[in-house]
Amino acid sequence: MILMDKIVIVGGNRLKGSVQISGSKNAVLPIMAGTLLADGRYHIQNVPMLRDVKTMSRLLQSMGTDVALYEHVLQIETKNCSIFEAPYDLVKTMRASIYVLGPLIGRFGYGKVSLPGGCAWGPRPVNFHIEGLQKLGAHIEIEGGYIVAKAKRLKGARIMLPQPSVGATGNLLLAAVLSKGSTLIENAAQEPEIASLSDFLNKMGAHIGGIGTSSLEIEGVDTLNPTDMSVIPDRIEAGTFLIAAHLTGGDVKVEEINARHLTALLKHLRKSGASIEVVNHAVRIQSDGQIKPVNVTTDVYPGFPTDMQAQWMVLMSLAKGSSVITEKIFFDRFTHVSELQRLGADITLDHNKAVVWGVDHLCGAPVMSTDLRASASLILAGLVAAGRTDISRVYHIDRGYEHIEEKLKPLGAEIWRDQEPLII
Ligand code: UD1
Predict the structure, then answer these.
(1) Which atom in ligand 1 lies closest to the alpha carbon of residue 99?
(2) In the sheet where 139-143 sits, what is the strand order?
(3) Tell me: the pLDDT tens digits for 1-52?
(4) Domain boundary residue among 195, 230, 265?
(5) What does pTM read for this prediction?
(6) Would the CB of 304 count as within 6 Å of ligand 1?
(7) Which of 158, 178, 312, 384 could form a disulfide with 106 if both were Cys (CB 3.0 to 4.6 A apart)?
(8) 162 lines ligand 1 (CB under 6 A)
């Protein structure tokens, strides 16, 4: 019998205390791919101990690099990297594997990376990555489900992204830093994770200007050098704990964060009735559990993050009144809706808009995780639902939250991990 982890929560406890936020998943993954750009030893600190980090480690190992992850520190030695391929088996479990394409083509002139395919909430194309690399001079073909990219040496170019895609901006940066001449990426993503990747590459000797803006200028260099780096805090994990505190009428200090990365969320939390105090690298949230309805529209940074949309929906499910949540980044990202409805939420979906009618209470039930942020929303709902909620398939949550139940327990949540048979 195959057993799978599940998370069990008995809801109703008020959260109180402090919680330390881990390093950002979305920041560390492109940095790990960036280590392919120069031979040598890298020392990366504040690394979250997550399934996606382990998957990226396995991918780098499959290419011949040495990777060791121990107590939030990654040691990577890249001198033996000799296989320039990312196989389907790994890419299908983590789309961010596509980040190795940029460094492979930029440094070795060859990269073969499986196309990631769709994900739980619909198609997620990589055409901006491919078209941008072609602008830099890469010859790209799709063969047997793989992107095969070849080039002698990439040449700087002007690239206008149709949308400020995080992944495409990161991949093109990773490719352009070793190209000949200058590259301009316009309509680039401004997310903190892209700024942190740019900082890492500049520490390696790259010349990237315009960091944090929508226009990134890259002056290509011939070689780069290994460097050390500390991963920025995970703004989505932080935001999830802030919502947990507000939902439960709690008083929680969320520590080791950069509050500037959370501006849009903090503004919305204040509007919804929470009291927020920013102190150095922490945010204290206090709530009396009275939640006001507040509409949100997801947007690129510095707008409201799509990665917080599912969690916000739980908060609005218990608001005094109705609100509208509009998803502008991934139109179909609503797989959590039907699971939240099983817990008693009143939500109507119309294309990329969800109308959420606040209810008095949610009721515990067995539910199933469908993707990473949907799982986070189910945990939040379980924390306030009356009775017991069993959340199956929590391997999704382990992709992006480090021991979430271990962080919630000291705050007063009644939550534990259990196992159940896998039924296919
Ligand atoms: C990254 C994050 C993810 C977050 C998302 C948006 C990582 C590992 N993942 O995903 O958590 O939800 O940013 O903030 O950092 N698009 C195309 N073609 C492309 C690329 C993107 O059409 O080649 C579209 C997408 O379908 C989407 C939009 O552009 O509608 C933004 O996607 P993108 O920013 O690329 O998301 P990811 O990098 O995949």
Answers:
(1) 8
(2) 85-86, 110-114, 146-150, 139-143
(3) 888 999 999 999 999 999 999 999 999 999 999 999 999 999 999 999 999 9
(4) 230
(5) 0.97
(6) no
(7) 178
(8) no
